[in-house]
Design a protein that fits this description.
3 copies of one chain form a homotrimer. The first copy, chain A, is about 30% helix and about 20% strand. By secondary structure, chain A is of the alpha/beta class. Chain A folds into 3 domains: about 300 residues, TIM Barrel; about 200 residues, Class I glutamine amidotransferase (GATase) domain (Rossmann fold, 3-Layer(aba) Sandwich), CATH 3.40.50.880; about 60 residues, Golgi alpha-mannosidase II (Immunoglobulin-like), CATH 2.60.40. In chain A, strands 10, 11, 12, 13, 14, 15, 16, 17, 18, 19 and 20 form an 11-stranded mixed β-sheet that branches. In chain A, helix 6 packs across helix 8. The two termini of chain A are about 15 Å apart. At the B-C interface, helix 2 and helix 4 of B face helix 7 and strand 14 of C.
Chain lengths: ~675, ~675, ~675
């Protein structure tokens, strides 16, 4: 069995956000909570999120008594505590006394008090207050046996354009570029007479000023990540000093574009994320939603290549989708298990009990305003609690992976900024299409930044690798030379890390050699336009973007079927060293990718389940030293027949042995333990 | 005959806005106006609206001569005057000398001079100026026999966020809550650490600060009504002191969401409103538009349960719809009579003569830029003038009502604020659907606030009674106990008047006992989703929102036909005391409501016309001590056959007797007087 | 042969924007540029646009060396230079030292540094800097034989609301109106109490203040043109003093609504414009796009009734359309020739070489990031260069025109401001429909302002002549009296130049006499509504707007087929003096206009090609003293058979003689020289 995230707690973590500070006037309810938690098989609560006003009701006046009591109760009940620092929202007294700790927006308007997640990350006052508060919390609760983890702040995000931040940004730029001349060259400020004479002349992007200087936009976004991470590091410092053995996390927001989590991952001990897919979405199957959610789980596991926490999810519905559908019976258990299948060692909810007022009062929770356990939601939550108790063996287990899909945050930003081509660039959708073709085959997949190490994989899929950061091209070539397979698409190798075009032909920075093609022009298609890919067994549709490429060493596998570039190559293969490189010059329909990756997976002999994975079924494998755990999950919205073929294992949930043909009921799942 | 609104003028009022101040340089046109008014059978003009610059051209320099002359002319011509106070727009000199009287918006930006309806209601300077101006007007014209009514300002609306208003808001909050602790509890500020230590820390909602604290949003909206009403009361004070016998009104804007007219109604003597439906709307029948308009007429009559004024309407078209269609021949007379049918004792236009310039120059008016009487519009206006002269008996007559539909302003706001469920909540549309099912049967209907007295009704329809204010639940239970029938729908009894959820199960605050059901969960449907209601004679479609309810004493009349709550109740009936309560747990298609209310009206024996009302025909009855006046109006856009059955009456317009079978021509109407 | 625009250069100008200042660190590339220019048959470069930072890197520190070198190179290579003044964008140092030279927007927010085209036109500092810079440029390069033209700034546009501009605006108003009373009368400020006591009280339109006082809006727009032109005149002054013989131009933006080019045309010597149609637009044929583009070419030629320059176009695609499609093979040459056909004596591109970074890096250019000549785009550019070298005879030749279509900037603004009627007014679309019906017949057409002289035409088409400026009605009547034909539509003659309605009936200002009809009412139709025009050989559909008119001397040619005005006239003809006037009272489908104008062109015997012009073919004729040049262009997207009938000429491109039947290949064209 692997290492558990909570020291000395070798079980799946089950619980979620708990806000007793909102209910201090109702001691009866606080008592009842403990009783209900046990009934729900909950073993963890995350407390203190947004509790600043409760902890420091006036400047310098502190109140920890209520929190002491919560700790006592949890200790007595044997429930673990993740203690949050309260920096996610400031009390009104603080905003009135120190308005500079509130944000300045890109229009340069100072915020008024309100909402949350809106402090200036550079404010010296706020940094001091947070340090003091975190120190007090750590000192006070360091000896509680219930304290198992720190949760700093909540869903870091957003940006501030105040003078503190401008100064920090300029300093960051100076450190990055060394000289203003180098910055001018990288940002290509000769265009529109935008050259700067000093770093002092630079301001953050603004709709009132500069908003389409791509180098500035990119560096500002990077600075926002840098400064947020720096703030987080300062939050963590006193915690680590006082409680060095308590792990620290913060709740990331999936693939939130505002922060580059790859630059923040090393600052925390454990990755956590808040998962709120639109289950039962309009015009989308449950399996499609599950695939998108799996993609984000895999990003979060890949960040540290180790188990993570599902820090928030809803047992029923959220309150911020346009249409907030109830999770259908069985769905909460199925999709919670999906998190575990992809590497989570917890299932946690926002939140335990619905608040009585304010804007999230109708967000799903374990305990409703109704207040009792005889609801469908509570009963399903309790059932899942019992199931999780059977998965101790899975805790801390690994995920073995042969294939990486590159989904790069900087590249995403740059493609977003890109002016030209088509408004139908859809980087995220394209990457997910490639991911899906592998996911449907039941492969374990890493989803990584382009700066990660490729050497442990057999296949690296790099869709729309528009931005090629220093060293990446070289490492890709080395990977292929040693036998690795690379998949490229159109829009590869156009710019460096500062969005400056490579000269001499695309794909640039030496990737032309790897791809074996030269991309001369890029045509954009209207939404209703289609081209076709011909020359393979089937004909496939092409849409959105078609690159006109020329062979420079590669061989054509398929050609365009239409338009003035009819007959020119659209799919090529280049043998390179011991490896190879595919180039897909246009956006194909999904069916092409499904067929293509089936062939590639087979050719390369990538690790996948020993049996065929029917449509709507997802398979993911975690493994310990002794065994493999096959998570076989039915997202097909109906019963599905399955032939397990040669494998034989015991379902950890039911204790029953499975092999050969079986039927997975609607929303059903198995956790088959197969001894090594 | 009832009491007339104009003292000693026992006729229907006919006229509208008249702006001679725009034409002072054209005395020939001012002369011609009088001649044309007589030709149009006009007996009233509303003057002085937006005339501040004409009355006080510079600070402290007054000019009443032109208005004296207008009064003289009207006295000579026997035309009644409604004199407006000019506060609806400020002259440029005032805005430049006193910018603080202009508004500050929610972003905290001060307005520049321009537009109208944009003064700060709290400005001490502006309140003083208005008091002085109104005093001068009242003193100067108090003895004119033409002066029949005051019209304060124009279409009050909007809000101001300046420091004067913030201070007044804080004072209002302090008075409402008594202590900051109580406010914190009601607004549930423990959420997101938002607790306040003093009222001084509170600011009005702002996109730059707080905008989703529902309690704050609601109270701010209430304060805006309070402060507007307070300003209006100050406007009225000098008028009442100097001309105590002249009634006061202001022109409301239908069901404008920005002001709660139920809190303002007692400040004026007579309700007036400006009616600008989109007649001949795209994809809507004339009858549908007429139904929506009838709904608003009924709101306005219900405000004081007495005759009101149709203060503004257009004889042809407006200038602010996206597509401004001409009223088809006959339509102006038909829809003007609809106002009278629903309780108006006037038909008034905006405006008498089209202005030569500025942005409303193409808004329909009686006299066109053309300037003569030989236009279609003028001739139709003159014809209606003659028709109205035949309705003296109707003046001041009552409307007897058995059924009330609750359409509550606070509830509307709260449902608008609500985060969660579905973006397809559509409170207004749902209420109107219920109203329509009664309107189509020809019933007189009151449309009321939930704080109104229910005791005089036999049926109270309360769709989506999400917010239940103090005492309302108790009064509803009492109403039912004594034999009344209540109709509830999904989303009933969730929050108190401050948007704080009732604990212990919905419908809360004791309404579960009345409804006999417990609503456990609320499912939201996508636009294309449908469920069905089964178990009745017909099957009906359900959409938008489906509540999962459990019987707690009620009996199920119909069940869900689909989804995981298939077979669970969707329509229930609970016997309660001598009365009963229906609960409709999902949004049905209109046909269900039509069938349902036919049954209910029949069962309860509610007062309705003695004959069948064909599709497209609307019937409303006013009554005096001696007679009933049946307004039978053809909105069907074609000739319609009608069987009057047992009733027999004289059409006041034609003087002809009607009974049995008859045909109502396209756009035709009857005003049948049936002796009691 | 006519006069050439470049003194002593009797060839078609071929080149475009060249930005060597972005590549000073790459002297190899600057060398290579010259070699490639020759290979591309380029004979002109436009330099210095946005080069302020390169020319004055710090306040008072100048650097002309690089520009000296460029001039030397061009002189050596025999390439002509259009030298731009750099005022289109300011360097960062200037914005930081003189923020007042940046704009204030209509919300009264001062801009921050960034973007371009955003200086305050009133700033004394910036006017001084521009004067100094332009003086230096003129003095330094006055003797270069390469200098052939000045290009002041770049794409003037936008507006500033700072106090300098407010003061200038007030002064402009005072000069226009003489007295505040006259302004009040013209703006009809009596409405909403908006009268001003002094010019000091007036501010520019703002969303925070006044935005729907139409007179103010119109005058502000006129002032923006006035002030921009004043700034431009100041830019030009030193150039003319130092280099009186070098012509001056600036690049207009087609029919950009922000500036009235008719008020600016006399300030420059030559008209230039930047043409970026959406070739291969979704759901539009190539011929439709070509027609819209021809319309704008004709506006630009009509401005001075002399040859103009195509200052910018793209050889492949732009970077700012939503979907940036590649120009298909042959299309660049075809549409470049279209410019020449309509009067351009140049074909110029933005830009020569793609920049390496910033937001326009993917805008099409002659030389790609790839950097070599073996691209499709470069080869097509070089081919066109060779073709243009064969058109020396066409340089400076005239365009003879019988018909003018009025497309008036002030009228467009006023119709845009208009509140009422329909949101489907579409002035531009309506004018273009009338233009199209003439364009398809191959006529040369002028597109003019209503203040232009009509006397040289035989037919004046004036669609939606809503605003009739002083003298226009009189001149139209005089034109018709002498035998001219006028075509009017609905919405004619409603307001004067200040948007004040004419009293006494529409069309006003005496146009009722010319049209012979009185327009009583205007009905607006929803998008899906249709009426019909009956009484002609065919029946036609009507949409959007239907005017109800009465004959006052005219005779009805066709009537309405539907609605309550069925049978009333919709198309009329009035004989007037020796001429006539048509009135089209509703918006017909295009087929009506096609048939109508075929008849009119035939009746009036207007000059058109001697042969039938097939669908998709465009014909335009330029002529010198000796010959006519028939540009016959195939926009049909397929090969088209053509019968040239009686004419016989030599194609200047191929040198081949053409007459009788021939076939024009897809994207093909002929430039037939027919001796007179």
């Amino acid at each position: 069995m692997g290492k558990s995230i909570f020291l000395g707690f070798p079980h799946m973590i089950y619980g979620g956000d708990y806000n007793p500070d909102q209910w201090l006037h109702r001691p009866d309810i606080l008592e009842e909570d403990i009783r209900l938690m046990k009934e729900a098989h909950v073993n963890e609560v995350s407390i203190g999120i947004f509790a600043w006003k409760a902890l420091e009701p006036e400047e310098g006046v502190y109140n920890f008594e209520w929190l002491d009591q919560v700790f006592r109760r949890m200790e007595e009940a044997g429930i673990n505590v993740i203690l949050a620092t309260p920096s996610g929202a400031r009390p009104a007294w603080m905003d009135h006394a120190h308005p500079e700790a509130m944000r300045t927006d890109s229009m340069r308007f100072k915020a008024l008090h309100g909402e949350r997640h809106n402090h200036c990350y550079s404010s010296p006052y706020y940094r001091k207050k947070v340090r003091e508060m975190n120190t007090m919390l750590a000192k006070r609760y360091k000896d509680s046996p219930a304290l198992k983890m720190w949760h700093v702040s909540n869903e870091y995000g957003g940006e501030c354009h105040c003078e503190y931040c401008q100064a920090a940004f300029r300093k960051w730029l100076e450190k990055k570029y060394g000289s203003i001349e180098e910055l001018n060259r990288q940002w290509w400020t000769g265009f529109w007479s935008h050259g700067f004479n000093s770093f002092e002349e630079i301001e953050s992007p603004s709709p009132r000023g500069e908003w389409e200087l791509h180098g500035l936009n990119l560096d500002w976004a990077r600075f926002v990540t840098y400064q947020t991470n720096d703030f987080m590091a300062e939050e963590i410092k006193p915690l680590k000093e006082i409680t060095p053995d308590v792990p620290v996390t913060t709740n990331f927001m999936g693939i939130y574009p505002g922060l580059d989590y790859w630059r923040m991952k090393d600052t925390v001990d454990v990755i956590s994320w808040d998962s709120y897919p639109t289950w039962h979405n309009d015009g989308e199957t449950l399996a499609q939603t599950a695939m998108s959610n799996a993609f984000i789980h895999d990003v979060n596991r890949s960040l540290k290549h180790q188990p993570f926490l599902l820090m928030e999810s809803t047992p029923s519905k959220v309150n911020w989708h346009k249409v907030n559908k109830l999770k259908r019976p069985g769905v909460n258990e199925l999709v919670s298990m999906q998190a575990v299948a992809h590497g989570s060692d917890s299932v946690q909810y926002f939140q335990w009990r619905k608040g009585q007022g304010a804007n999230e009062k109708f967000h799903g929770a374990v305990v409703d305003h109704y207040g009792k356990a005889d609801t469908r939601v509570f009963q399903e939550v309790a059932h899942l609690g019992q199931s999780l108790e059977k998965l101790d063996e899975v805790v801390g287990s690994d995920t073995a992976v042969d294939v990486a899909v590159i989904f790069d945050w900087n590249n995403r930003l740059a493609i977003g900024n890109l002016q030209g081509l088509s408004n139908r660039r859809d980087y995220e959708g394209v990457v997910r299409d490639h991911y899906r073709a592998l996911w449907e085959q039941g492969l374990n997949i890493d989803v990584i930044d382009e700066e990660e190490d490729f050497s442990s994989y057999k296949l690296v899929v790099a869709p729309m690798l528009y931005m090629v950061k220093p060293g990446v091209a070289e490492r890709l070539r080395a990977f292929a030379k040693k036998g690795g397979t690379v998949v490229f698409t159109y829009l590869t190798g156009l710019v460096n890390e500062n969005d400056l075009c490579f000269l001499g032909g695309f794909p640039g920075d030496g990737l032309m050699e790897l791809a074996g093609v030269w991309a001369e022009e890029i045509d954009a298609l209207y939404e209703s336009d289609r081209n076709s890919m011909i020359g393979l067994e089937k004909e496939y549709e092409l849409k959105d973007i078609c690159e006109i490429i020329h062979l420079k060493g590669a061989k054509a596998l398929a050609n365009y079927g239409e338009d003035f570039y009819q007959g020119q190559p659209v799919l090529t293969l280049n043998e390179y060293g011991k490896g190879r490189c595919y180039y897909i010059a246009a956006r194909p329909d999904y069916q092409f990718l499904a067929d293509f990756y089936k062939k590639v997976v087979k050719e390369l002999g990538l690790a996948k389940p020993e049996f065929d994975v029917p449509e709507g079924i997802s398979v993911t494998v975690r493994e310990s030293k002794e065994a493999k755990f096959y998570f076989i999950m039915n997202f097909a919205e109906k019963d599905v027949n399955l032939d397990l073929g040669s494998i034989c294992g015991v379902d950890l949930i039911s204790g029953q042995e499975y092999s050969g043909k079986t039927c997975l009921l609607k929303t059903g799942y198995l956790v088959l333990k197969v001894e090594k």
